[in-house]
Design brief:
Length: about 425
Amino acid sequence: MGSNNFYVSCERVFQPTLSGKPVVVLSNNDGCVIARSEEAKAFGIPMGLPAFQLADLLQDQPIEVYSSNYTLYGDMSARVMMTMAQWTPDVEVYSIDEAFLKLSALPPEGLSVYGQTMRTTIQQWTGIPVSIGLGPTKTLAKLANRLAKRSAEAGGVVALTATSEVEAALAQTPIEHLWGIGPGYTRRLKAHAITTALQLRDANDRWIRQLLGVVGQRIVWELRGISCLPLERCPPPKHSLMMSRSFGRPITTLTEMREAVATYMTRAAEKLRRHHVAARVVTVFLTTNRFRDEPQYTKSATMPLPVATQDTAELIRYALQGIAQIFREGYRYKKAGVMVTELVPAHQIQAHLFDQHDRERSRRLMAAIDAINTQWGSGTVRYAAVGVQPRWRMRCVRRSPRYTTRWEEPAVVRCAP
DNA sequence: TCTGGGGTCCTAGGACCC
DNA sequence: TCTGGGGTCCTAGGACCC
């Protein structure tokens, strides 16, 4: 299952007048276009277009522009995923708008009809249009899904089951549209005159292994219908976790940089606790704006912690140490971030002998802070290091209301007289 | 004025060990 | 005239994904 322009669809569920109109959704910081309705694509708006170029491109076009509203999209995604879980417990949530389902119990002839039912139900229950691709491996299912999105007569569902259908689909698919084939692999393959998915499927094993490694080998086998990428029902525990943002305006002082890093570390620590993991290593980084013709500087600092932790105050201390090490005066910084790595399950934190921290007290304090912030809104209780009213905070001037997750921002239904 | 954020996996090469 | 062989671990960098 996959969705087309998922973010635009989410906006349209609560703003039905948007349907049929060109709509785009911008990335964090209102930086660039990350979702386009079909109408917007028809205007020639490319993915990743910087937002400030939209104005030039669309002088008089009536285009609807939205900042991204991840709270809303995340909640809508959960509804779609929950709907699918009723057909099979074997669901892998692959991304915010994609999932793999294992339907091995069904006879191949019945798959298309089944797919249609799923599609209609998801549309009715959540308002989100999706397309469904069926195939014997993940790679072929992804390809089927792509065809389902693009072909009008498919009705949103394509099953690649019969050998002849698979061959026809592979013959008409350029390699760069396959899942797992990016620009680098495309270049290597094209250098050897391999341009279609069918040619790739029929390539020699040892040769492919040499050219693209085991990763490429797996793709080839998947194209042959041999599954190499198993369904992962529960996501494996994370190894690392990152929190970074571009600034609404450049930062030039260490004071502001410290606030930004403390803010990001606070969010990262919240994520750690939500995932029940603790970090053994903290990395901070900062960077200037690579698009500007001015002095550039990018640097990171990595700090190992004596004991794995999920305590916000402790993590902020290390992050600030790191940023002090790498901050240099005289640059206009565009972005900074924190990364926590070597994550371990929170219940198996190995304290060492001379650990001066009262870990139990810290755990209770963090639980209390999280509870307050969940109930009263993020940032109700926070550390002084994050500052007040930062001038660098990111822009999002066109965000829609968080209809489904905030009592103060509900959807309003107007009835025609 | 202005160009996103967050991940995973694999490989090659170096250090080090016996 | 001649310099072992094999193993593990770590890191950096590159590839990919959405």
